[in-house]
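Take a careful look at the sequence and tokenised backbone pasted below. I need to know what the token row says about the fold.
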Amino acid sequence: MRNIVFHDIDVNKTYDPVISLNQAWDNIRVPIIAPILRIAIYICIGMSIMLFIERVYMAIVIACVKCLGKKRYTKYQLDAIKEDLEKNKNYPKVLVQIPMFNEKEVYKLSIGAVSGLSWPSDRLVVQVLDDSTNEVLRAMVELECQKWIEKGVNVEYETRNNRNGYKAGALREGLKKQYAKDCEFVIIFDADFQPEEDFLWRTIPYLLENPELGLVQARWKFVNADECLMTRLQEMSLDYHFSVEQEVGSSTCSFFGFNGTAGVWRMSALNDAGGWKDRTTVEDMDLAVRASLKGWKFLFVGDLAVRNELPSTFKAYRYQQHRWSCGPANLFRKMLKEIILSERVSIWKKWQLIYAFFFVRKIIAHWVTFFLYCIVIPATIMVPEVHLPKPLAIYLPAGITILNAASTLRHDLPD
């Protein structure tokens, strides 16, 4: 009994939640978190390599196009077609659609620019599709249309009692009009787009010379690119889309998407593809994919630019990016089976459409950017047991950035 020692209980010892959390983190970090993070790194390496190879391929094509000094649209004899049109007076009838929704700031500019297009007035129909919910604004748009009607321009002002299908629904309803059915070509300009006077003369002849062409797409020129840092970054991103992605697609006669505006459709191609559908938020891409699966070819005219404005507020930019990011993935899910079973396009074009256009450019490009930089790299800092390879962290991203910059050296487009 004498050897028994009684220890005093430390009544001042308290529970420390920080120590408990550290102990819990140590218990799950090595056996659970580290293996998952290693798998995520391998996935990011694979996606980065796929994206890098795609960028290298497009850079090689662009380099060849620039070195040879020839683009696909330069092989057409536009002057001969123009002379034939002026001599025989056999101008095709053209419909120009301007969908708009509460466009208070730009409606005058767009209607005025389209109404000033150089084309015989009896062969041109300007269709203003106004889904505005503001009755005062509707009256102002209708008054602007009436002003151009009095000047001899064939302007049709159309409204709807609902907004079913949004832009796709408005365009679809516009094509159901009797005067629209008589047109051979249809052009879409969003409300903030202002085409030059000779736009039709620089696009329609391509479609007249090649009956296999279903779409002629022009590029965009941003009038407010230098307004702020956000618009400058948008210009850099979209310049890559036009100067590289669409130029490569056109030059290699492979698929590239319709941008939803500043493009000329052959009416028979649009109808053959099934017309406008509102099943996704990227109705323009949906139409282009369906037309491509029907065997129609597309042409991108890189030296023809149409002026427009970039979103200058974060809210508008966020809405635009959400649509462009989520819409293609949803469309890919809905059309994968249709693409695989299509009998009118080659195996190579199916592969290019599925792998390059949808999987790499529309899915992998977004996923690797978010997953790697926002999740994997920060997580490796918290899990020192996992090593982040330098090629993934430095070399591949730097290589992709350099290829993007080298392919889109800034230059002034012709006015």
